[in-house]
Backbone:
């Protein structure tokens, strides 16, 4: 009876992810001025994609294939090329998270790259291409930035919590999200919307936001950042027992989770189009 080969080691996958993400972030930053004139739209007129988004994702895919040619890749711009074999690795990449910030020269855009095995993210990196800040995590190995292990906020009072969020590009969804925002703003310390979900999740992981929620995120928006937040001690989930996903991504410290979950449920934050 032949032995089953061991699965990939998360630390080894993280090493690949960090190298690839750093190279991709350098390309994104270098291309900003030369590619910014080539702007197209995706789902709506305000949902933009630049030539750099496509070029950076292609660079990431090529770099991954060079070292792990049999792995699958789920990318924002080019879709899914996923290996279905049990134990196989699927990489999840957002080449430039925060494209509107990128378009306007705001320093909040990132390369996000995660490695998933059998549906579970085991390694991830988010690198702010504008500033060089970088967050990493492996499943069970903690979350880190600049050599420091991260711990999330210990805030337990909703009225004192600084909450991050984001808005979709569909006008109907924005209208619903705006209603949620208007009802929430008087019940928390304040709300921040910075335009790059992967970076928001990392800021929450180190306590620079107390919590975060958003409806409409895709796997490439939260795969790496969600692992980083979870490894920093946050509860990462959806609403009413659902896992994190397109209907809702919610992350909060354990002491704050129940109150924020109750408020989001009351406000029907996962509802609307």
Residues:
């Amino acid at each position: 009876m032949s032995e089953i080969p061991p699965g990939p080691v998360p630390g080894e996958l993280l090493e690949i992810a960090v190298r690839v993400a750093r190279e991709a972030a350098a390309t994104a930053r270098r291309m900003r001025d030369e590619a910014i004139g080539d702007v197209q739209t995706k789902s709506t007129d305000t949902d933009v994609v630049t030539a750099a988004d496509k070029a950076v994702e292609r660079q990431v895919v090529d770099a991954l294939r060079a070292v792990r040619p049999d792995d699958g890749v789920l990318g924002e711009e080019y879709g899914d090329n996923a290996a279905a074999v049990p134990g196989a690795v699927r990489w999840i990449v957002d080449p430039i998270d925060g494209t509107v910030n990128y378009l306007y020269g705001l320093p909040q855009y990132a390369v996000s790259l995660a490695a998933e095995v059998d549906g579970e993210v085991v390694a991830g990196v988010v690198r702010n291409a504008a500033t060089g800040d970088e967050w990493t995590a492996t499943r069970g190995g903690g979350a880190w930035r600049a050599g420091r292990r991260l711990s999330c906020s210990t805030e337990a009072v909703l009225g004192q919590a600084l909450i991050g969020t984001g808005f979709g590009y569909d006008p109907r969804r924005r209208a619903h999200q705006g209603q949620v925002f208007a009802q929430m703003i008087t019940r928390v310390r304040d709300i921040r919307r910075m335009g790059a979900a992967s970076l928001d999740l990392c800021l929450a992981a180190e306590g620079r936001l107390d919590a975060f929620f958003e409806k409409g995120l895709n796997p490439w928006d939260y795969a790496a950042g969600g692992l980083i937040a979870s490894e920093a001690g946050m509860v990462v989930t959806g609403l009413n027992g659902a896992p994190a996903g397109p209907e809702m991504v919610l992350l909060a410290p354990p002491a704050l989770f129940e109150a924020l979950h109750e408020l989001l449920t009351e406000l029907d934050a996962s509802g609307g189009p």
Remarks:
- Helices lie at 10-35, 51-67, 99-104, 171-184, 197-205, 219-231, 254-266.
- The chain is about 35% helix and 25% strand.
- The mean pLDDT is 91.
- Residues 10-141 form a domain with the Fructose-1,6-Bisphosphatase; Chain A, domain 1 fold (CATH 3.30.540.10).
